[in-house]
């Protein structure tokens, strides 16, 4: 299969790539607006207005909204259309962090216990991607950072090897909801330093330090965002 694809002339593959990237670009743009609260939680989102803003047809807009709906960021209501998902409640926020604090420090220790060179390389790669985010504006940068944060935590959970824990956390899309509580650049700068500490524990193959660094990161993250509810 792979070799058959590879033998196709470039020209046959190119249109597919372009179609994909248009849809991806539209998705990324709406995602950035949701993450940075340019589209406020609960706000109505009409396909027509997005068509005008992005100057594209309805198809990539609808595809993007469908993907965002699957990620819990957009809600579709019969006869009403799309809305940005409402902000998570304080109660859900507390529940999310309680769950994460129970699962992720443990997962970090397990991940170090079974760490191989490929796993370490993968974690280093996602940590570096987060530190090296380059974007034309703060909103796009913030959105990219939210996605890299989700990736970083997902890699730790993947390395830990318990697929049920990984899926349980993934299903919550908690990173997206958490980043959407407020649009604040300080959130990203501080989290970067904390991820570096987690990575350092992995590089030292120190399970206890990895668990402690993950716990500290989650507690700090929770405390940074609490003011969103004041
Ligand atoms: Zn993080």
Report the sheet-strand fraction.
under 5%
Total of helices: 11
Q: Residue-averaged pLDDT, rounded?
A: 87
Ligand roster = zinc ion
The count of β-strands is 3
Rg, alpha carbons: 19 Å
**Main beta sheet:** 3 strands, antiparallel
Helix/sheet category:
mainly alpha
Poorly predicted ranges: 1-19
Strand order of the largest sheet: 1-3-2
Name the helicity range.
Answer: over 70%
Oligomer: single chain
Instruction: Report the span from N to C terminus.
Output: 56 Å
Reading the helices and strands in chain order gives HHEHHEEHHHHHHH
Approximate shape: globular
Keywords:
single chain, 230 residues, mainly alpha, three-stranded antiparallel β-sheet, 11 helices, binds zinc ion
Description of the molecule:
The protein is mainly α and 230 residues long. It contains eleven helices and three strands; from the N terminus they run ααβααββααααααα. The chain has helices at residues 2-7, 10-35, 47-54, 58-70, 90-113, 117-131, 138-160, 163-172, 174-179, 185-203, 207-225, and strands at residues 44-45, 74-77, 81-84. The chain has a three-stranded antiparallel β-sheet. Strand 2 and strand 3 form a beta hairpin. Helix 2 (10-35) crosses helix 4, helix 5 (90-113) runs antiparallel to helix 11 and helix 6 (117-131) packs antiparallel against helix 10 (185-203). The model is unreliable at 1-19 (pLDDT under 50). Residues 149, 152-153, 191, 195, 217 line the site of zinc ion (ZN).
């Amino acid at each position: 299969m792979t070799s058959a694809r590879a033998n196709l002339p470039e020209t046959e593959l190119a249109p597919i790539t372009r179609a994909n990237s248009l849809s991806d670009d539209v998705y990324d743009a709406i995602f950035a607006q949701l993450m940075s609260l340019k589209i406020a939680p609960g706000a109505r989102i009409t396909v027509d207005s997005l068509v005008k803003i992005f100057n594209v047809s309805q198809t990539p807009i609808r595809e993007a909204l469908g993907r965002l709906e699957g990620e819990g960021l957009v809600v579709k209501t019969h006869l009403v259309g799309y809305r940005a998902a409402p902000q998570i409640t304080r109660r859900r926020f507390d529940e999310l962090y309680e769950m994460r604090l129970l699962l992720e420090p443990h997962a970090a220790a397990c991940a170090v216990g079974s760490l191989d060179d490929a796993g370490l390389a993968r974690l280093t790669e996602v940590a570096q991607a987060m530190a090296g985010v380059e974007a034309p504006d703060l909103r796009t940068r913030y959105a990219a950072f939210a996605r890299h944060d989700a990736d970083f935590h997902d890699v730790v959970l993947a390395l830990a090897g318990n697929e049920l824990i990984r899926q349980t956390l993934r299903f919550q899309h908690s990173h997206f909801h958490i980043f959407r509580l407020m649009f604040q650049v300080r959130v990203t700068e501080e989290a970067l330093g904390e991820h570096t500490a987690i990575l350092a524990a992995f590089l030292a193959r120190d399970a206890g330090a990895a668990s402690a660094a993950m716990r500290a990161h989650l507690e700090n993250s929770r405390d940074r965002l609490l003011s969103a509810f004041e």
